[in-house]
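=== Structure Prediction Worksheet ===
Name of assembly: unnamed complex
Input type: mixed (protein and possibly other molecules)
Chain count: two
Listed entries:
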Amino acid sequence: MHQYLTKRIGSMVLTLFAISMVTFFLMNAIPGGTAEMVVKHTFVGLEQQASSAQLQEISSRYDLKKPIIVQYCNWVSGALLHGDFGTSYAYQKPVTAVILLRLPATLMLALASMLIVLVVGIPLGIYSAIHENRLSDIIIRVASIFTMSVPGFWLALILIMIFSIGLGLFPTSGYGTPYHLVLPALALSAHTTAVTIRIMRTGMLETLGKPFITFAIAKGLPTKYIITRHAFRNALLPVVTVLGIYFGHMLAGTMVIEQIYAWPGIGSLLINSVLARDIPVVEGCVLVIVALVLLVNFAVDLLYLAIDPRIHYE
Amino acid sequence: MSLLEVSGLNVTFPTQEGNVRASSDVSFSLDEGEVLGLIGESGSGKSVIGLSILRLLPAYAEVSGRILFRGIDLAVIPEKDLARIRGREIALLPQNPVLSLNPLMQNGRQLAEVYEQTGDDRVVARKKTLDLLQAFSFHDPAGVYTLYPHQLSGGMRQRLTAGIALSYHPSLLIADEPTRGLDRDVREKTIDLFRKIEDEFGTAILLITHDLDLAERLCSRIVVMYAGEIVEIGPAGEVFEDPAHPYTQGLLRARPRNGLVPLPGMSPGLSALPPGCRFAGRCGRADVSCTTTHPTVSGCGPGRCARCRHLF
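=== Predicted Assembly ===
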């Protein structure tokens, strides 16, 4: 186990390194001079009048004259030694500060969505399995297929139409109060909830057909006890796998939802930074997202250990 | 009154290829403390009978007939009352001890939970569990308690399932193919285990098996099944010594010690049963009337009967 942890953490660090390299060189491969982009952000409306002396000054300030390898090494050593991921061209502030400002919003949205998935998806999946082929099961199945097939951005707009414009219950967009959280969290969680219902249902049905469930019934145990204590945990592994993947997506891929609801998270920061060619911020965002996804995967693997005593990591 | 009296039991599984008649008009009885062997080849409907007694078949199975246990018809009583009989009055020793234990639950918990369901608190349940594990020759009950099923050997798992089944000293144990897939060593231990159950607990056993040696060594009476119906019933010694039904005769000739003479042909599919005798296609004695008229069970000696038109 000790060895496994060392290996696992080592491979996570290596992955981060590889990703940082790929992003850094790819971003720098985009045509167009970086100094000109910086000027565009600094002198809004006056960028045509920027002198070559000013461009020179900017280039040396951001180390843009040095070979790309040196730039990368400087950046990595700064990040490793001082936690300094460079300075944003657009915001003129340290990247770390810019990201830390946005991270809580993304985490809050992802956690709220995950809560909806757990509280709605798992019980409905179990209910659906226990009532297999009855009317309630069929309704849940049809509803979940519908929800899975609907694109997130469309659902987000429909939710705004119904609950903000129509009923006036929640704000259309923005950030700050719990009310602002409801619609984005619903839009973001819908697909995952539907997937969870289906996987939980399938897993429960499969488990309920196993001989140890028959034996549990033969032991005279009550049905409720068998479902909660014997079947549920056995049906949980595939659900945990899928939830881990989707939680990673929620932390990383919320750009569309964040854009629609003007949610000030990492996703919208990343999109705007790419458009503005704010390379240090893009780099920082990608690294943070990758780190979060790696951590979630790691947590999922540890969760397997807690659920199934037969699983051992060497 | 018999402990268990099954009469006219029919089990049908509706499938897309038609109705599969897993058991047809099965009637037999079992006395207190008796060991009754239900033998027949795979697919003859033996296990289905065992499972239908405790209503453990999947919901889509169509079951009819009477299953009287001490005069109570198990086929019609409410689920809640049946749950009180399961495990306490009638216990199941499942076919596959490996698959019948919850892989994610500690061995001891799988036993203790049975006691806890009847109101014992955790401490008492644990104590009873450890005592029972000891009684089933586990040398380190406390250690086994916290292990998981995959950490036990095949024989230990069998003893554990037997322990769970006998936790309430039931008056009837339904043992479903207890030696299936076991190696020789574990099989011998299983036989010892059954002797112990019989002697120490006085439990009546319905032994469902295709293992003729096991049945001969343990049972006092034998019920022979073929294609979902009973073809012969009689005291074990007599059935093995002088089988009445041609199928039983064929079955015994196919034993290694009797020369391993295989029965020709195949048993009929349970979804397309012939109108006459179900064994007629493989029977040397069959004539035209056998293929058209379904034979009934008729007596052929004290305590013996068979389903054949050519008994005498």
